[in-house]
Amino acid sequence: MTQNHIHVPDHPAVITCTEPSDDGGLCDAAAEWVALGGHSYELTPVPRCLDHALAARRAGCYIRPISKDELATGSLDA
After folding, report:
1. Helices assigned H by DSSP within the chain
2. Which residue, of 2, 13, 14, 15, is most buried by count of CB atoms within 10 Å of its CB?
């Protein structure tokens, strides 16, 4: 099998937040895969910006630890 036979989907260079916005669209702020929800055996990653990741934490979702530097700058820097 050669690499030509392997399908690798194109991924966007930057992940954007998929949370709904007030105007009916999506947040679209720079994001990363930080949030998990559901039962421990059904965890699903979700791209969220810092604000939506913290809101998800307050709502009971599990998210990766957010560093003090990320909180201070207001952005997720993986």
Report:
1. 50-58, 68-73
2. 15
